Amino acid sequence: MKIDAFHGFTLAILLLFVGKGLVARWGILRRYSIPESLVGGLACALVVFALYYGAGIVVSFDLEARDALLLYFFAAIGLSTDARTLRHGGRPLLILSGLAIGFMVLQNLAGMEMARAFGLDPRAGLMVGSISLTGGVGTTLAWSDHFVQNLGIAQAQELGLAANMIGLIAACTIGGPIAGLLMRRHRLRASGDSALEIGTLHSDEQHARLDYYGVLLALLWLNCALMLGSGINALVALTPVTLPAFVGCLLAGILLRMVANWMRPSGRGRLWIPTRERIRASV
Fold first, then answer.
1. Highest mean pLDDT: which range of 89-93, 115-119, 197-201
2. How far is residue 157's CA from residue 172's CA, in Å, rounded to a whole number?
3. Which phi and psi (to 5°) does residue 3 adopt?
4. In whole angstroms, what is the distance from residue 197 CA to residue 221 CA?
């Protein structure tokens, strides 16, 4: 059974809402902050598993739309990043950044040693290191072609995605209980400055009006970020540095947001970048 890109994309949207409904229904998923997308994806994987082993039906997905959507995803992250907030981080931000970089190095070293122990190319260990465990699914997919085509490491994508899935499950099942234990021990409570999104019922949410203007404005900024990102990637290609295409789109989104903030610090205007905070403020 072959599912084309259009139906696969539509199914992905449906699975996100399925995951949202399951997280809202089951308190244990909310307690451990299990992502809704992960729950929906696992539900789909179980169905595909049952079809294969129960009825001998092989389900495959056309991933043609995946690469384009990946660029849009990172461009949106860049556009929603306000560099002005970094100055409020101070010393805690520097400490957290140092710890994160240190653990990324440890992940790569451990992955390379494990690959060497199993008789594999040590570079294959990077796919089970920071690429998958820190970078996530998008980074894993972006680097897979380079590892397969340029480094000659077969099935690098499968290796990285498997490590990423294990990392996601481990982070949710281990990190959630530990965080909860620390919060209870030190009697910590949420500040209440930001609204809860994981496990929120649709009936309890506040919704901003969605019209054609808002949708087109968002697409305009995203497409501008992709075009600028394409130029950045072209410049990077002239250097010895190898970076996946999404990095240029991410940087382009950050640059566009910085320029927009500089030109209009108030954050108001008909062509201003639509962000989650601005939508909530308008409700």
1. 115-119
2. 22
3. -105, 120
4. 24
